[in-house]
Amino acid sequence: MDVLTTLTADKPVVIFSKSTCCMSHTVKALICSFGANPSVIEVDKMASGHQVERALIQLGCRPSVPAVFIGQQFIGGADEVIKLNVQNKLAQLLLRAKAIFIWSRSCCRGIHSPTGTGMPRTGLALVLCSILVLDSHMPRGLTA
């Protein structure tokens, strides 16, 4: 557990990830969509990655990644982060941790969400809507 305390100290947001994990990528994209700049630790690229992964499993992460810490507090994995977002609680956690300094739902109205709320309903919605936004900005004849 001490290894996790060391890695999360003095950082507003830390995401433990694996470079090949699609849900880790989704969680990173979601948190970045608020304007936060999380510290991302790719455990599969660390020499001590197995030790970190064991500590995450002992903490209750199943699977071990993604594992999100906001304000040095363990939040959980993808399901918990997406649930907080759907409940409109994720932005408040990021504000309290000083990961972001201002947030207004209206600043993103309709950009990431087909419902016009600015808040994706699920990680899949975030990914799909991001592709739609990217695709809508591509010149004709090019695809994302």
UniProtKB/TrEMBL annotation:
GO CC term (a single one): cytoplasm
Gene3D superfamilies for the chain: Glutaredoxin (3.40.30.10)
Residue intervals of the Glutaredoxin domain: 13-75
CDD domains per record: GRX_GRXh_1_2_like
Keyword Cytoplasm: yes
Pfam families hit by this protein: Glutaredoxin (PF00462)
Keyword line: Cytoplasm, Redox-active center
Keyword field contains tRNA processing: no
Annotated signal peptide: none
InterPro entries: GlrX-like_pln_2, Glutaredoxin, Glutaredoxin_subgr, Thioredoxin-like_sf
Family listed: Belongs to the glutaredoxin family. CC-type subfamily.
NCBIfam families: GlrX-like_plant (TIGR02189)
The protein's name in its UniProt record: Glutaredoxin domain-containing protein
Lineage: Eukaryota, Viridiplantae, Streptophyta, Embryophyta, Tracheophyta
